[in-house]
Structures are given as structure tokens and as C-alpha cells.
Amino acid sequence: MLVLSQFVLRLSFGLALAMGLTSPRKVTSGFFRNHSYVLLGLNVVATLAALAPSDGRQWLVPLTAAVLSYLAAAAWLYERPAVGRGLLWLVAGVSIAAAWLAQSHTGAVTSVGSHSTIESVPADAESLMPILRAIDPIAGGFMLGTTITAMFLGHWYLNTPTMELAPLRRLLGLMALAITARAVTSGLGLVLQTHIADLSTAQWLMIALRWLAGIIGTGILTWMAWQTLKIPNTQSATGILYVAVITVFIGELTSLLLSGGASFPV
């Protein structure tokens, strides 16, 4: 449940953030309204996951995000883009706060093949540990959110094919930025982790899956979607983005499983 809670909260943060970065002048309000309900569902799941460990009132934070998501959907329903966008920013802020709060409980998760010998963490590396732990949900959520929002928007072109392609191209650019940021944070965490621990074969196999699918594979798919829009063919680009969502989900879930028993996020 800890991995589920962290994954859902990061996804909620990233989706709300990416929707907030999408222009309501170029994308119809129905897109924002429908996917605000997706945010509502994600935060309800996060609330239920937070209730399971009975950790005080931790569940109130994702519940707040769920209420804000419902209000955002109502704002877009009544064509109030300024209010709706502001509520999306609030959902993003509350969701990342909930992810940070839930992160303190992920240490109980046992990583795959956790038979490595953990040595003492050097002082210089130890100072980076809280920074990387704080950045990790942001980078992971940004990558999850931009990818799934791009896929949702590509699918929305089937409903409104006359929309400009600029918003989708912008999201693909944000995906490239997110992949780069994720590669930097995960790469740094991996380097630091290998300096303080001997990783098992099972862990290295999971790390290979995490990088080949979640970062390298997603990067290639992002480039393919960008090239497909030059034709332009939004249907084919959306199909590519469907696959990208799968690779990102595999990569981020693998990362959460690996990082749960590690000193640094990988």
C-alpha cells in the first residue's frame, strides 16, 4: 500500500501540474473538466491507501486534494478557466505535500533482492540524501504527469480535431525536460547508492528494467511522437504515447520498489 500511495500521489501531482501548464485558450474546457475527475479518483485512492496504516490524520491531505479536484471539475464545467487553473495548481501543491508526507513511511518497503551490505554513509553523501529524497517525488511526478497528460490530450484531438497542435507539442517538450530531469536525479541516486552498498544481481536487473523502459524507452517514444506530429498524425502520436505511459509506469513503479529499501532514490 505504501508504494501504491506514493505512486498515485506523484501521478496526481504531475497530472495536475501538466494540466495547469496547458493553455485553456487552445484546449477546450471539456478536457480539463473530464481529467479533473481523474484527479478526483486518484486522490480518493490515495486517501483510502492512507487510511490503511492508520497513521493519524495523514489521510486528510489527499482528501483535501480530492475535494479540490472536484471543485476544479465544477469550475471547468461552468467555464471558469482562471478558477479552474488555480484549483489545479492547488491540487498539484497538496498532492506533492501528501507525497512528501507519505515518503517518510516508504522505508518499510523491502526492495527487490535486498541482500546488499549497507555501509555507513559518508558525510558529504549524507547531506545529499534529504535533498534527493525531496526532489525525487517532484521529478517522478513531473515525468508521470506530462506523459499521461500528453496521451490524454492526444486522445482529445479525436473529439475536437480542429484544435491547434501547439499544446500537444508543448507537452512533448515538457516530457523531454521531465525525462532529462529524471535521468539526472535517478542517475545521481544510483551512483551514490552503489558507493555505499553492494547491489545484488536481482537489483541490477531491476535497475536495467527501470532505465531501459522508464527513461531510455520513454525518451525514444517521445521523439517518435514528436516526429509523428510533423506529418501531422495525432492518432498515431497518441498510440505512441499510450506505449510511453506504459513504459513510464513500469519505470516509476520499479524505481519505487528499488528505492524503498535504499538510502538514495534510484
User: Which oligomeric state applies?
Assistant: single chain
Strand content: under 5%
CATH architecture of the largest domain: Up-down Bundle
Number of helices: 8
| Principal-axis shape | globular
Protein structure class: mainly alpha
Could you please say which CATH topology of the largest domain applies here? Four Helix Bundle (Hemerythrin (Met), subunit A)
Radius of gyration: 19 Å
What is the share of helical residues?
Answer: over 70%
Rounded mean pLDDT score = 90
* Number of beta strands: 0
- How many individual domains? 2
| CATH class designation of the largest domain | Mainly Alpha
Unreliable runs, pLDDT <50, ≥5 residues?
A: 107-119
End-to-end C-alpha gap: 20 Å
Major sheet size, sense and barrel closure = none
Order of helices and strands: HHHHHHHH
Briefly characterize the structure.
This protein is mainly α.
What does this protein look like?
76% of the residues lie in helices and 0% in strands. It has eight helices and no strands. The protein has helices at residues 2-20, 29-51, 60-77, 81-103, 123-156, 166-196, 201-229, 234-259. The longest helix has 34 residues, at 123-156.
Structural features:
8 helices, globular, mainly alpha, Four Helix Bundle (Hemerythrin (Met), subunit A), 266 residues, 2 domains
